[in-house]
Amino acid sequence: MREALDQWDFVIAAYAVGIVATLALVAWAWWDMKRAERRREEARRK
Amino acid sequence: MHGFANPKRFLSLARWLTPLLLLSGLVLAGAALVWGLFVVPPDRLMGETVRILFLHVPTAWLGMGGWTAIAIASGVYLVWRHPLADLAARAAAVPGMIFTAVCLATGSIWGRPTWGTWWVWDGRLTSMLVLLFLYFGYIALAQAVAREGGSSRIPAIFGLVGAINIPIINRSVVWWNSLHQPPSITAGKSAIDAEFLVPLLIAVLGFSLIFGGVVLARMRALLGDIQAEARLRRKASEAA
Q: What domains can you pick out in chain B, each with its CATH number?
């Protein structure tokens, strides 16, 4: 017998994975860029 | 192109382009996902799960696009020795890896209700998994070279050789029997109805802009660290 699957559960899981990973990637890339540019400015001032 | 190999010129361009690409990409991708979730009707065969298309296809495209960018930038670095080309290749690795992983995860989640299985070892899925492992290898190699001070030619050659996997992924559903469907969009033709195609193209554009913004942000981060290191080293040698 074929098991009944709620298709929306799979849609929500896929969207959660995709959105969380994309937002985390953007936040990390932005934060790391700011950190590296701050470090360069500090090295310039020393 | 040679003009943009100047770090100063690159930074003056990247400073305004990075937030512009990221913001416009987030807005477009967000709008396309909302459209895909709440506006698009369920598909006749796949039902509600067709909505995963709007995440799965852009991430698959960018997983392959990321390695294509690595290969092109590596080729430019090997031929012209532009340091920014080496940075561009390294900058494309992490977003490419993340999008490949998201493509595999969303594909697996999509496979369970439509194919009845989370995974099959067919040509498309296996070659995409190989791409993920190639990203792991490239990132580890590039980091080791940056840390140990080896030649950047090694990851560049790896980036070029790894590109052999891209046409294999692309043609895998044509060459081998697969549960995965054959290509729905080819040059100038689409088997997808406009109701699905329009939000799909907006999602692809949005995620591509995000990818471009992340690559620029990574290039600025790598360049900032290199310039800080160089300055600190120069000051240390002047003080000695």
A: 22-39+46-178+193-239 (1.20.120)
pLDDT at position A1 over 50: no
* For testing contact with chain A, the best of B24, B28, B51 (most A CBs within 10 A): B51
Tokens standing for residue B40: 């698009």
Question: What is the distance in angstroms between the Cα of A1 and the nearest Cα belonging to chain B?
Answer: 13
Find the CB nearest B102 among A18, A33, A37: A18
The C-alpha atoms of residue B124 and residue A37 are separated, in whole angstroms, by 40
Phi, psi of B189 (to 5 degrees): -130, 150
Written as one string, the DSSP assignment of chain A is -PPP--HHHHHHHHHHHHHHHHHHHHHHHHHHHHHHHHHHHHHHH-
Q: Which of the 8 DSSP states describes residue B41?
A: P
Return phi, psi of residue A5, to 5°. Answer: -115, 135
Give the ipTM of the model, two decimals please.
0.91
Report DSSP state, residue B184.
S
Tell which residue, B172, B32, B1, B120, has the closest CA to residue A18: B32
- pTM of the predicted protein model: 0.92
